[in-house]
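User: Show me a protein chain along with its predicted structure.
Assistant: Here is one chain, sequence first, then structure tokens.
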Amino acid sequence: MISKQNTCYNQTMNFQKLDQLKTKLDIHRPLDNSIVKNLREDLILRWTYNSNAIEGNTLTLNETKVALEGITVGGKSLREHFEAINHKEAILFVESLVEKDEVLSEYTIKSLHALILKNVDDSNAGSYRNVNVLISGATHRPPTNIEVPSQMEAFITWYKNEAQTLHPIERACHVHVDFVGIHPFIDGNGRISRLLMNFELMKSGFPPVVLKVENRLAYYDALDKAHTLGDYEPFTTLVEESFEPYWYVLGV
């Protein structure tokens, strides 16, 4: 059995490695506009496809690309088209928050949610849930709807204080895990949690990561372990490994 001490040591070493890669990336900044444009277009597409696919959207990667270009895909629901379009808009909103150096708040979270559910579920868009929910297949049970406002307030208080002492990657992972554990909305919590995680990474100068739908089982297992056992290491490792494509493309 791996001891907690060894796990913490390995995690610290991983953070140091990623910090070194980020330093190399910073040396190359500002990046060539053509590289930035290519990476951004690819990121928006893959992030949108994978995040929606994790939640059950059946658009393929190429179908998502077509949908984002404003073309209707035959045999696919209107909801799935809106989910793709909305997610791209949410990414653009996150980018604007990073550019303005905005601090995470309940207002920004609700604004993101309003974008995610636009034309999908307008009656619940931007509003905390008023019913109790279960996370399918998970051991963890989210708080009751009555507890959601106070838990979200506590989440933001933690973010503004204790969270700022964590390594940026660790903070981003905790933001994702703790937010989705509260499950404050009736729908869209997973997509919002991944947007918030990347908001934190981007604010700290790290590239955003895409959690792939192929790793959905490991992703769900890691989340449940963090929620029920307080063990964030499997989830953090999953996120760390998701950085790899960017270092290769950027040549660092």
